[in-house]
Specification:
Strand content: 35-45%
CATH class of the largest domain: Mainly Beta
Number of helices: 6
Number of domains: 2
Structural class: mainly beta
Protein name: Esterase-like activity of phytase family protein
Radius of gyration: 28 Å
Largest sheet: 5 strands, mixed
InterPro entries: Mesenchyme-surface_protein, Phytase-like_dom
CATH topology of the largest domain: Methylamine Dehydrogenase, Chain H
Pfam family, one: Phytase-like
CATH architecture of the largest domain: 7 Propeller
Shape: elongated
Distance between the termini: 46 Å
CATH superfamily of the largest domain: YVTN repeat-like/Quinoprotein amine dehydrogenase
C-alpha cells in the first residue's frame, strides 16, 4: 500500500473509529453490537407495490444477432424508441452500426426480432445516434462523418417499421446527435452537434479544446404529409447572444440533446459550452440562451485510491449538462454529466423562462450510489456516478423525473410535482452504461438501454424492462435494493464487493459482512436483517497498532466470545492467512497457511472461514497444483497445537471456454458444513451457482500438499440459479457469501466486484428457514 493510500485510509477511518465508539484497545467482554453507534437510513425505501416500478426482464442485445455473427462481437443498445402500439422497441447500436428490434409484447419475455444494418442504408462506417418512432415509420438519425471532424455530415433515414425498408432520406448538412418529436407530432427537432475532435489542439488552446469549427445548430423537420415532402429548417444561434449569456466558446456551440414541450418549445443543451437554449419549434426563433452555471459540492469522493472517502469537494464546477427534459412547460431538468471541464455529479431543475436554478441535487445523487453499494471508485477523480440520461414521464398523473447514472449503473426516480422540491421515490439497477431511458406510458412500462458491452467479462449491454403498478407486483424478487447502508453523521456508510457473510452469535436478526480489496481499508460491517431492505448500520475498521489496514477479506466468522476470524486472500499463495481480530477490530494474530500448501496455490486462495467450537474450517477456492483436477480442499485448523488438516471436495465440471469452478464460502450448521460453489460465468451463460452439504468428517485429514486428500461426499442443498434469475436482472457471477442467522433463515449475498467487470448490483437473498430451503 503506497504512502498516499495509507494517508487516505487513515483519514477515511479516524472519524469512523470515533463514531463507532470503539478504541483500538478492548476488554474481553466487549462486543461490536454493545458499543457501536448504529447508523439509520434517511430514506424510506419501500414504496407500495402500486406506486413502484418492478423489473420484468433483462435482455442482453447480443442475443439479437444474426446466426453467423460471433457472440463476442461488440453490440450495444444506446437510445431507444417504441412503435405507437407500444409493442416493438427499436434501439440504436452504434458499435455494430445498426438498429435493433425487440418484441416487448410480453414485457416478461422480450424477443429479439432482428436488426437493420446501416451498411444496407448507406455506408458500413455510418453510425446511428438516435431514433424516434412516428406513425408507421422510425426516424433514424445517422452520423456519416467517418472521423472527419472538420467536415461533419449526417442524414435522417425514414424507415418503414413493417418491412424495414427506407422510404426517404434527408441530408442534415452536419453531424447529428439526438432527436425529439413534438408532443403533437408536428415536427422533429435534431441536435446537430458537429462534435469536436478530442485529439486536436486549436491554436493557443489545450488538446481537445474549443473552438473547432464548424459550429453546431438545430434542424427542424415538419412531419406533415408523406416523408418525401419533409424538408429540414436550419436554426442557428446568435454568437453575440451566446457570449452575453456567458457561454464559454460561443463561436463553436455543440448541441447535445433536445426535448420538446407541449407548446412546441425546443430545449437544447450546449454541453461543452455549459449552456442551454430554448427555441420556438414552430417559428424557429431562438427565444433564450442561458448558462447552466456552476455548483460547489461537498461530501463526495474525489480521489481514486480504493477508499470511499466522502470528505472531498468540487468548487465552482460547470454543470455541463447532457440530457434535458421538460417538467411541464415551465421548468427544465438536466443531467449534469460534464465533459472535459465540468460535471457536478447530480441533476438540476431550471426555470425555463429566466434560466434560474430552482433546485440542485448537490451530493444526494452520489450518496444514492454509496448507500446501495454502487459507488464506482475508479471514477472518483473524474465525474463520479456521471448522470447522463434523463426522461420525464407521468405516473398516475404525477410528473416523474428519471435520471440515469452512466457509471454507477442505476436510474433514480423522483416525484417532481413540485419542481422546487423533488422527492426521491426509487432506484432501479441496470446493466453497465445506462444511456437511453424510454417511458412507455400507454403500457406502464419503462425501458432502459445500456451502451457498455464487455464480451470478455461476459457483462453484456442490455435492455432492461420495468413495469409500474400493481399489475407487475411480484416480479423481480427480491426487489432492489435488498441491502443498503445507513448514515452516520450525515454520510452513508460506504460499501460494496461483499465477499463474506457470518451470523451474529449474539443477535438472531443480525449478520456480519465485509468489503474485499475493492474498497479499503478493511472493515467488518454489521447488518440488521430484521429490516427490509437489510440495513448496514455499523462499520468496524480493522486496525494494527492503532492504524487501519488493508486486507482482501474473502471470508469472516464471528467468534462466540467476541471478535472475528477473517479469511484473507493474498496476491499469491504465501499471502493467504487467517486473521484473528478482537471485538474492537484490533488484530490479535495472523495464522499463515502451511508453507507447502501456500506454495501450491495460484492467485485464488482462501475464500471462506467458519468457526466451529474449538476449530476453524476454511475453503480454498481452487485446486492445489499437486491435487487432482477438480478437487478443491477444505481445511480444519485447530489453534491448540497450531495444527492443519485437509480434506477433498469434488467440484462440478464445466465445458465452457475460459471457465472454472471454485468454492466461495463455507459455514457450519447443525454439525454439517455448508459449502458455496460457483462457476465464473454470468448472464445467460451461468451454469453452476449452488449450495452443498458436507458432513463433518470423522478422523483426521492429510497434513501435506503431497498427500491426496480424502474426498468428502456432498449433497445438493439448493440450486441458486433460479433465485438469481428470479430477480429478472442480469444473473450475477459471484455468489460469494452464505450464512444461517440465529433466526434460522438462510442468507446468500453476491459480490459486485466494485463495479469492475460486473454490472454492480448486489443481491442479498433471504431464502427463508434453512430447514425448508432445499430445492432437491
Amino acid at each position: 500500500m503506497s504512502s498516499s493510500r495509507v494517508r487516505a485510509a487513515v483519514a477515511a477511518t479516524v472519524g469512523t473509529l470515533i463514531l463507532a465508539g470503539c478504541s483500538t484497545e478492548s476488554t474481553e467482554d466487549e462486543r461490536p453490537t454493545d458499543t457501536a453507534l448504529k447508523a439509520t437510513s434517511p430514506i424510506e425505501w419501500n414504496l407500495p407495490a402500486d406506486q413502484s416500478y418492478h423489473r420484468t426482464a433483462t435482455y442482453p442485445v447480443y442475443l439479437n444477432r444474426a446466426a453467423e455473427e460471433p457472440a463476442e462481437t461488440e453490440t450495444v443498445a444506446e437510445i431507444s424508441t417504441v412503435t405507437p402500439d407500444g409493442n416493438t422497441l427499436i434501439y440504436t447500436d452504434a458499435a455494430a452500426k445498426r438498429i435493433g428490434f425487440l418484441d416487448i409484447g410480453d414485457p416478461a419475455k422480450p424477443v429479439g426480432v432482428g436488426t437493420l444494418s446501416l451498411a444496407e442504408l448507406g455506408h458500413q462506417d455510418d453510425q446511428p445516434t438516435s431514433v424516434a418512432a412516428v406513425g408507421e415509420f422510425v426516424l433514424v438519425v445517422v452520423d456519416t462523418t467517418g472521423g472527419d471532424f472538420a467536415h461533419p455530415s449526417g442524414r435522417l433515414d425514414v424507415v418503414s417499421t413493417a418491412d424495414r425498408t427506407r422510404v426517404h432520406s434527408i441530408d442534415l448538412a452536419g453531424q447529428p446527435d439526438s432527436i425529439a418529436i413534438s408532443p403533437d407530432g408536428a415536427f422533429a427537432a435534431i441536435a446537430m452537434e458537429n462534435q469536436r475532435d478530442e485529439e486536436f489542439t486549436p491554436t493557443d488552446k489545450s488538446e481537445g479544446d474549443l473552438p473547432q469549427p464548424p459550429t453546431g445548430f438545430i434542424q427542424l423537420i415538419g412531419l406533415a404529409g408523406t416523408p418525401n415532402t419533409w424538408t429540414p429548417r436550419r436554426v442557428d444561434f446568435d454568437v453575440d447572444a451566446a457570449r452575453a449569456a456567458g457561454l464559454d466558446t460561443p463561436e463553436d456551440l455543440e448541441p447535445e440533446y433536445v426535448s420538446v414541450n407541449s407548446r412546441g418549445q425546443v430545449a437544447v443543451t450546449l454541453q461543452e459550452n455549459n449552456g442551454i437554449a430554448v427555441i420556438d419549434g414552430h417559428s424557429g426563433q431562438v427565444q433564450k440562451i442561458f448558462s447552466a452555471g456552476s455548483e460547489s459540492v461537498d461530501g463526495i469522493d474525489t480521489k481514486e485510491d480504493d477508499v470511499i472517502d466522502q470528505t472531498g469537494s468540487i468548487t465552482d464546477t460547470p454543470r455541463e449538462p447532457d440530457a434535458i427534459g421538460w417538467i411541464g412547460d415551465d421548468h427544465l431538468a438536466t443531467a449534469n454529466e460534464g465533459d472535459w471541464k465540468g460535471g457536478t455529479r447530480g441533476w438540476t431543475i431550471f426555470d425555463a423562462a429566466t434560466g434560474d436554478v430552482v433546485w440542485d441535487a448537490g451530493t444526494s445523487f452520489e450518496q444514492l450510489a454509496v448507500r446501495t453499494g454502487l459507488h464506482i471508485e475508479s471514477r472518483a477523480e473524474a465525474k463520479g456516478p456521471e448522470p447522463e440520461g434523463l426522461a420525464i414521464t407521468e405516473l398516475g398523473g404525477t410528473p416523474v423525473a428519471l435520471i440515469a447514472s452512466e457509471r454507477s449503473n442505476f436510474v433514480a426516480v423522483y416525484d417532481v410535482s413540485d419542481p422546487k422540491a423533488p422527492k426521491f421515490r426509487q432506484i432501479l439497477p441496470t446493466t453497465p452504461g445506462p444511456e437511453g431511458i424510454l417511458a412507455i406510458p400507454s403500457r406502464n412500462l419503462l425501458a432502459i438501454s445500456s451502451e457498455a458491452d464487455d464480451a470478455e467479462a461476459r457483462v453484456r449491454a442490455s435492455v432492461t424492462l420495468y413495469g409500474h403498478g400493481e399489475t407487475f407486483a411480484g416480479t423481480g424478487k427480491p426487489s432492489f435494493p435488498s441491502i443498503v447502508s445507513g448514515d452516520l453523521d450525515g454520510a452513508p456508510i460506504g460499501w460494496g464487493a461483499l465477499g463474506a457473510l457470518s451470523a451474529d452469535p449474539r443477535n438472531d436478526d443480525r449478520l456480519y459482512t465485509a468489503t474485499d480489496l475493492a474498497y479499503g481499508p478493511a472493515r467488518v460491517l454489521g447488518v440488521d436483517v430484521a429490516q427490509e431492505p437489510a440495513l448496514i448500520d455499523t462499520e468496524l475498521p480493522i486496525t494494527k497498532d492503532g492504524k487501519p489496514v488493508t486486507l482482501d477479506i474473502e471470508g469472516l466468522s464471528a467468534r462466540p466470545d467476541g471478535g472475528f476470524v477473517l479469511a484473507v486472500e493474498g496476491e499469491d499463495g504465501p499471502g493467504n492467512q487467517l486473521v484473528y481480530v478482537d471485538a474492537a477490530g484490533k488484530i490479535e494474530k495472523r495464522v499463515p497457511l502451511p508453507k507447502d500448501i501456500a506454495a501450491q496455490l495460484g492467485s485464488q486462495g482462501l475464500e471462506g472461514v467458519a468457526v466451529h467450537g474449538d476449530v476453524v474450517w476454511v475453503a480454498l477456492q481452487r485446486e492445489l497444483k499437486t491435487d487432482p483436477k477438480g478437487v478443491a480442499r477444505l481445511g480444519r485448523y485447530t489453534p491448540d497445537g497450531d495444527r492443519w488438516e485437509w480434506f477433498g471436495y469434488q467440484l462440478e465440471t464445466t465445458t465452457a471456454a475460459d471457465d472454472w469452478i471454485g468454492l466461495s464460502e463455507i459455514t457450519v450448521h447443525n454439525g454439517e458444513l455448508l459449502v458455496l460453489e460457483r462457476d465464473k460465468l454470468n448472464g445467460p451463460d451461468a451454469r453452476v451457482k449452488a449450495l452443498y452439504r458436507v458432513a463433518i468428517p470423522d478422523g483426521a485429514g492429510v497434513t501435506a500438499s503431497t498427500q491426496p486428500p480424502r474426498v468428502l461426499p456432498k449433497t445438493l442443498v439448493r440450486n441458486l440459479l433460479p433465485d438469481l434469475r428470479a430477480t429478472n436482472g442480469y444473473v450475477q457471477e459471484k455468489v460469494e457469501g452464505v450464512a444461517v442467522a440465529g433466526n434460522q433463515n438462510l442468507y446468500v449475498v453476491t459480490d459486485n466486484d466494485g463495479l469492475e467487470d460486473a454490472n454492480g448490483e448486489t443481491v442479498l437473498f433471504n431464502l427463508g428457514p434453512v430447514a425448508e430451503a432445499s430445492t432437491v
